[in-house]
């Protein structure tokens, strides 16, 4: 059952300069929010559903931010070595400490500073084994999402997205995020994120390729997350 219609509103963090103290604090808050949501376990579960025949060697993260969540994933996947990691974001937020942490795990991160819609429109021949995004797609309306999803389907063999779930439980939770001692930016953006989140099979309906070429699944990951996973059948086990 589809919940109330999506409402996409600008989030304050997106408009703050990266060096703004409120933005710095909110990015730290997001790490706490991810832990409260169980984002790492949910992301690992979504990737497992892909049933990739071989570990990815080239990974793209859209809306990467400070790349801290993906670093936790890298630590949880010790068998994934020699990874070429592209972090796409409007700003370079990768600290030297985080870069070195990736290097110790055998991951080579490169930041690509670009607006995702510009990236989606440009002619880019690079191909990725896996594209990942978390708490990012909900920022965009249907038309923009269509362009982004089409670009991902062209340039990647597999894709997972973990987004806010748009339902009553998540709405209630978004108004209680203050118990995590987050700032006013994070509190306000949490409510907007859920209003712009997803329900039913809204993301699957935007996926541009035929089901004969792709295996796709869209599902709820309680209590607050909505996931979409897609993989080319040619790289999936079974």
Topology:
Elements: H1 12-15, H2 21-37, H3 39-50, E1 58-62, H4 68-76, E2 83-89, H5 96-104, E3 107-113, H6 116-121, E4 130-134, H7 142-155, E5 158-164, H8 168-174, H9 184-195, E6 214-221, E7 225-232
Parallel strand pairs: 1-2, 1-4, 2-3, 4-5
Antiparallel strand pairs: 5-7, 6-7
Overview features:
alpha/beta, 238 residues
Structurally, how many domains make up the residues?
Answer: 1
Number of strands: 7
Total number of helices: 9
- Rg: 17 Å
The CATH superfamily is known as Vaccinia Virus protein VP39
From N to C, what is the helix and strand string? HHHEHEHEHEHEHHEE
Strand content: 15-25%
- Strands of the biggest beta sheet: in what spatial order? 3-2-1-4-5-7-6
Q: Low-confidence parts, pLDDT < 50 over ≥5 residues?
A: none
Walkthrough of the structure:
The chain is α/β, with parallel strands linked by helices and 238 residues long. The chain has one domain: 3-Layer(aba) Sandwich (Rossmann fold), CATH 3.40.50. Helix content is 38%, strand content 20%. The chain has helices at 12-15, 21-37, 39-50, 68-76, 96-104, 116-121, 142-155, 168-174, 184-195; strands at residues 58-62, 83-89, 107-113, 130-134, 158-164, 214-221, 225-232. The chain has a seven-stranded mixed beta sheet. It is globular. The two termini are 31 Å apart. The model has no long low-confidence stretch (mean pLDDT 95).
